[in-house]
Design goal:
The protein is of the alpha+beta class and about 160 residues long. About 20% of the residues lie in helices and about 60% in strands.
Length: about 160
């Protein structure tokens, strides 16, 4: 049997398909950033925090790390773990954040939901909004390092150590 297409044509078709998929991912990524509303309100936060985490993804994602919560003049160590869907690659994240609607220290630990989107090529930036079922909302902003595409939803387990 004689092949009907040349190898170069097959490669061009695969490349075109990959670029189309990447374009769709970038457009969806922009939509997620808008709906995720990563900008914190202008008022004073109830607490602040800083985190250092590592994230690896291959369609699903896993995140692990820790940091510090500063609340009512005291500093508390926290752990951060997450599982989610979407993305490909690995990156480290150093972020600081503002915490709103924190009525008491007991309202901080728990499961937070957040969407992510972006691209890290060696160095990048990130913004995220995380919310738990107790009404606590965290707005994070930081720097990323690694090689990763990010588009997905995560469930973060944040605990006091």
């Amino acid at each position: 049997m004689i092949p009907t297409s040349k190898p170069n044509q097959t490669m061009k078709t695969k490349l075109t398909t990959a670029l189309s998929g990447a374009s769709a991912l970038l457009l969806a990524s922009c939509a997620t950033k808008i709906s995720n509303d990563p900008k914190a309100p202008t008022g004073a936060p109830d607490a602040t925090l800083s985190v250092d985490i590592a994230q690896a993804s291959y369609y699903g994602s896993a995140t692990s790390g820790g940091g510090r919560l500063n609340y009512q003049g005291r500093s508390y160590q926290i752990s951060v773990n997450a599982v989610g869907g979407g993305g490909l690659g690995a990156q480290t994240i150093h972020a600081t954040g503002k915490v709103y609607h924190l009525k008491s220290l007991a309202a901080f630990p728990g499961t937070y939901t957040g969407a992510r989107s972006g691209l890290t090529l060696l160095n990048g930036k990130m913004n995220a909004r995380l919310a738990n079922d107790k009404g606590t909302v965290i707005y994070l902003s930081g720097k990323t390092a690694g090689l990763s595409t990010n588009y997905g939803i995560d469930k973060f387990i944040i605990q006091l150590r």
